[in-house]
């Protein structure tokens, strides 16, 4: 049994799973630890007393405190960092002093790519694994799609189009990391004007990018004040796939001879498929357990997170330059 400490007791720590059916797949750190069966949540930390006490009560956590200092020294196998991004650097530094085997951090690791690089290096220097919760890297259907694209099952990739809200680094990071996973390294070609739809310091940014293999990528934005949207369309030699609702559903169309115009090929009817996004967090904890028990490679690391954050910060800088 692996012992776990959770720092930050908000929605991603456990709140998203509160009130859901016991049969539902976990969407949070606490929910996934409990469902896995190989982890015991030994303590939690949050400066908000009411939130902390409710979390400890809901998840049966025996020890809780406002700060790690108040909690006192103890050994944990895993530390989950679920606090606000601004608190991550201090929380990771404090977690490192506890000497866990692994830190599972929410994204982004920090508010600055260079600081993220420094924190990742500090983990590596101490032999502490760093997993970062870019959730879709654990979604089974996304993992399968990445393999199929790399194997050429869809032929050549012609283009990609994504749309997101709520910040170039915060939610745009999910999109860039997903594109890295599916299409490989990408470079920024141009950025549009910033849209401040949620964060004062992290606007959503439309952008044109290009993969290392030459695939053109267009990113557009919605407005988080209207509603959340996260979708990605990939056009290939043999058809088109669209991730909808953040991965909760997909649509596919395959190229075939046109039934309307002789001599032309066109995309066929839509096939709607339920996504496997809800399997991602349980898969993340299973991957973490395998890393601890058998040395398995982590699907999402400080290195992959840093690569995404660097591109996102380039987008943000380029967009903000339009205002000067």
Strand content: 25-35%
Give the CATH H-level superfamily of the largest domain: Dihydrodipicolinate Reductase, domain 2
Task: Assign the CATH topology of the largest domain.
Answer: Dihydrodipicolinate Reductase, domain 2
Distance between the termini: 55 Å
Query: What share of the residues lie within helices?
Result: 25-40%
The tally of beta strands, per DSSP, is: 15
Describe the secondary structure blueprint for this structure.
Elements: E1 2-7, H1 29-36, E2 39-45, H2 49-59, E3 63-65, H3 68-71, E4 78-81, H4 88-98, E5 102-105, H5 113-125, E6 129-132, H6 140-150, E7 157-164, H7 167-183, E8 186-191, E9 207-211, E10 216-221, E11 231-236, E12 239-244, E13 249-257, E14 265-267, E15 271-274, H8 280-294, H9 302-321
Parallel strand pairs: 1-2, 1-4, 2-3, 4-5, 5-6, 7-10
Antiparallel strand pairs: 7-11, 8-9, 9-10, 11-12, 12-13, 13-14, 13-15
Helix pairs in contact: 1-8, 4-5, 5-9, 7-9
Keywords:
324 residues; alpha/beta; Rossmann fold; Dihydrodipicolinate Reductase, domain 2; six-stranded parallel sheet; 9 helices; 34% helix; Putative oxidoreductase YcjS; oxidoreductase activity; EC 1.-.-.-; oxidoreductase; nucleotide binding
């Amino acid at each position: 049994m692996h012992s776990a400490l959770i720092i930050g007791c908000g929605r991603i720590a456990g709140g998203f799973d509160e009130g859901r059916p016991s049969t539902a797949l976990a969407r949070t750190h606490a929910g996934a630890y409990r469902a896995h069966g190989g982890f015991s949540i030994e303590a939690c930390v949050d400066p908000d007393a009411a939130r902390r006490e409710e979390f400890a009560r809901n998840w049966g956590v025996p020890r809780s405190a406002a700060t790690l200092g108040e909690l006192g020294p103890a050994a944990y196998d895993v530390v989950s960092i679920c606090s606000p991004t601004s608190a991550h650097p201090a929380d990771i530094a404090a977690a490192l002093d506890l000497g866990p085997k692994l830190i599972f951090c929410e994204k982004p690791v920090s508010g600055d790519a260079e600081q993220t690089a420094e924190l990742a290096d500090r983990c590596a220097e101490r032999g502490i694994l760093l997993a970062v919760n870019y959730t879709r890297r654990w979604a089974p259907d996304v993992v399968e799609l990445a393999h199929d694209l790399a194997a050429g099952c869809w032929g050549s990739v012609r283009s990609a189009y994504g749309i997101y809200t709520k910040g170039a680094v915060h939610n745009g990071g999910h999109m860039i990391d997903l594109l890295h996973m599916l299409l490989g390294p990408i470079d920024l070609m141009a950025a549009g004007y910033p849209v401040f739809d949620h964060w004062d310091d992290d606007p959503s940014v439309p952008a044109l990018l290009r993969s290392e293999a030459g695939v053109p990528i267009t990113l557009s934005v919605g407005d988080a004040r209207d509603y959340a949207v996260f979708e990605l369309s990939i056009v290939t030699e043999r058809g088109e796939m669209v991730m909808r609702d953040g991965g909760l559903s997909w649509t596919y169309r395959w190229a075939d001879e046109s039934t309307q115009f002789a001599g032309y090929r066109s995309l066929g009817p839509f096939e709607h498929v339920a996504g496997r996004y809800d399997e991602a967090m349980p898969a993340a904890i299973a991957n973490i357990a395998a890393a601890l028990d058998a040395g398995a490679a982590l699907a999402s690391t400080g290195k992959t997170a840093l690569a995404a954050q660097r591109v996102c910060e380039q987008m943000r800088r380029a967009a903000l330059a339009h205002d000067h």
